[in-house]
Amino acid sequence: MPVADYKTYCRMLDRARENHFAYPAINVTSLTTANAVLRGLAESKCDGIIQVSTGGAAFASGSSVKDMALGAISIAEHVHRVAERYPIYVALHTDHCQADKLQKFVLPLVEETERRRSQGKPNLFSSHMFDGSALSLKENLDLSAELLERFRKADLILEIETGVVGGEEDGVVGKASDKLYTTPEDTLQVASRLNSIGGRYLLAATFGNVHGVYKPGHVKLKPAVLRECQEAVMREYGDAARFFLVFHGGSGSGIEEIHEAIEYGVVKMNIDTDTQYAFTRPIADHILKNYDRVLKVDGEVGDKKMYDPRHYLALAETAMSERVKQAVSQLKATGTTSYNM
Ligand SMILES: [Zn+2]
Question: Which of 115, 257, 290, 302 is found 20 to 30 A from 335 (Cα to Cα)?
Answer without folding.
Answer: 257
